[in-house]
Amino acid sequence: GALLVSERIDREELCGALSPCSLSFEIVVENPLELYSGAVEIQDINDNDPVFPSSQARLEISESVAAGARFPLESAQDPDVGINSLQTYQLSANPHFALDVQTRVDGSKYAELVLEKELDREEQRELHLVLTALDGGSPPRSAHVQIHIDVVDANDNAPVFNQSTYKASVRENTATGTLVARISAYDLDDGPNGDIIYSFSSHTPAKVRELFALDSATGELRVKGQLDYEETKLYEIYLQAKDKGAVPGVAHCKVLVEVVDVNDNAPEVTVTSVYSPVPEDAAPGTVVALLSVTDLDSHDNGLILVQVSDVNDNAPKSSQDSYDVYVLENNMPGIPILNVSATDPDLGRNALLSYTLLQGDPTVGHIFSINRDNGTLYLLTSLDHEDQVEFSMVVQVQDGGSPPLATNVSVSVFVTDLNDNAPTVLYPHPNTTATYTDVVAPGSPAGHMVTKVVAVDADAGYNAWISYTLLQATDPSLFSVGLHSGEIFTARQLREDDAPQHTLVILLKDHGEPVLSSSATVSISVAEMVKEVLTDLTDVAPANDPRKHVTFYLILAVILVSAAFFITMLSVGIFKCYKWRQSKELFNSSRSTLYRTPGPFHHIDAVRGGLTPPNFYHQVYLTTDSRQSDLLCKKPFTSSPLGSRQSTMRNGEPGLYHQIVGTASRLPTPAE
Fold it and tell me: pLDDT at position 540, please?
């Protein structure tokens, strides 16, 4: 059972820099069957001296370099490990430089010269220093290198890296020439003093230079050799940037390259047979062989995997059962408004989802469209809140299994209102040639309601809230308008010296953003007796005054007098007959004269429903002994698209019209 050394052991040859260094073995013991694993650790002795790459090193340092500047020195290599490896550096005594010993990630040491006192080329043109490398053996082994420093005048600005440390990761099977990292430095100098050359720092190990290549012009670090995760997992690469000045300025940076493991090692199976041949009467459970499986890869790359095939046993599942989408009206066609999201835990084709818009409402297919692959819902046309406020649809999400499984998701699209409609004036009607004149009696007190401007806004909510403002008036001090009602009141008591005719311009504004507005013109006559009203009506004559051509009309009258006499007599007869019938009807229907003003609207919904106040009218009744000819002045109704609802308003709202009846000294007889 003794384990013997069969030949001389060289730890550096067997393991190199790997520590600890061990050799594994297995021992099988029979009767009873037992398996033992063992390892022999090869301990290091200090049998190697540190070695510098060269016996001399030369540095060029500008006299303008400030104190604190660092200059990396070539590192010594010692194949021993542990305490026997390179432990420290020493620098010969001098007034300008100190030595700073740094430790890499892998524990190795490297030295940097640190300038403590600025150099003066006129005082000393060159310096000679000795760098000593020591290991930790007992006694320690050492190596020396001569450092020659030339003090010269050079650039005022040295290159500067945009970061001191770069990090990158590459797979161990990365092909040669693959870009690992791109370092970048800048130099504020011009010309050659600002041109930068990239290179490896002097203390970069030779192994790193074999595996990586650096482009001196672009600073691109690329793979040069074959990387192996099982050999080295992390590389610490030191690079420098040097300009092309007479005395080059130098900057240094570090690149950490992590090697990512790939499954490039097949499992190794070791079979150790114990019983061979196996007896035919061997009992169940008898050990036949020992199996050992190993894989040099790491993590999941080192497992033995068993694949389970998938069946389509899961329906697609949406993140939510229904969606509510709000879209502003007057949208741009073709915009996406929703992304229906769904998942399927199955694999492969069983998890391949497709989205379909079910055509429950035929209009939905003309307005909306869905991307079959990603579930994005698009709006094909521009929507109008006043046309339709809500759309409902169903999106079906189906997988690619056989048979396929599906899930339905309901989508509701709400069209939100924009202020795209200005207030519309219903009374007084803006698009008619007829003149609506409201009448107010002289001496009416302040606060007396004369009439009302009625308007509607097709928008909704705050956008349809209308405010009324008196924009222009014949006498601004006489009338006022309700801010939200549109009712026109007397602001003070009417006086005798007030004008008989007044024209008001009312400004109507909604409360949307931006504000939309319209205007309404209201004519008000101050009158108490029928004679005054007739005078007002006479004032509303055509703009073409017949007196401008008095001579022409007189000549024409002489020529046509004979024919006109006959026609006039016939017309008088017909007119007298008509007046007799009308007087009889008026006598039966009205026995008193009243002056009424239009009352306020009690329900604004009546206006929205079509009860349009433009059908206000005036009737004037005179007796046969009036000083002027008998006259029935009835304002014509304005045609309205609301049809029968106008007659409903006339019959059911007596406050919506005016009656002016002249004072009679006596009642007319039926004959009259």
Answer: 43
pLDDT for the residue 535: 47
Superfamily of domain 317-416: Cadherins (2.60.40.60)
Sheet holding 220-223, edge to edge: 179-182, 220-223, 212-214
For the chain, which residues score pLDDT lower than 50? Answer: 529-548, 589-672
> Over the Cα atoms of the chain, what is R_g?
54
Residue 435's pLDDT is 63
Alpha-carbon distance of 115 to 67, in angstroms, equals 5
The pLDDT score that the predictor gives to residue 16 is 81
- Asked if residue 185 lies in contact with residue 144, where contact means CB atoms within 8 angstroms, the answer is no
DSSP-assigned letter for residue 607: H
pTM of the model: 0.38
The full DSSP string for 46-105 is: S----B-S-SEEEEEEETTPPTT-EEE-PPPB----GGGSEEEEEE---SSEEEEEEE-T
Tell me which amino acid residue 326 is.
Y
Residues 6+ apart with CB under 8 A from 512: 418, 419, 459, 462, 463
Strand locations in 579-667 (E): 618-621, 658-661
Query: What are 557-587's pLDDT values in tens digits?
Result: 667 776 777 787 788 888 888 777 776 665 5
What are the pLDDT digits (tens) for 140-193?
999 999 999 998 766 667 899 999 999 999 998 899 999 999 999 998 877 788
**Which residues have C-beta within 8 Å of that of residue 263, sequence separation ≥ 6?**
297, 301
- Domain-wise residue ranges, the chain: 11-41, 56-152, 160-260, 317-416, 424-526
Identify the CA nearest to 604 among candidates 455, 459, 482: 455
* Nearest in space to 135 (alpha carbons), one of 84, 75, 77: 84
Query: The domain 160-260: what is its CATH number?
Result: 2.60.40.60
- Given a contact cutoff of 8 angstroms between Cβ atoms, the answer to whether 653 and 611 are in contact is yes
> Where does 509-654 have alpha helices with state H?
530-539, 550-589, 604-608, 644-652
Instruction: Output DSSP code: residue 276.
Output: S
Q: What is the pLDDT of residue 4?
A: 87
Q: State the Cα–Cα distance between residues 609 and 598, nearest whole angstrom.
A: 19
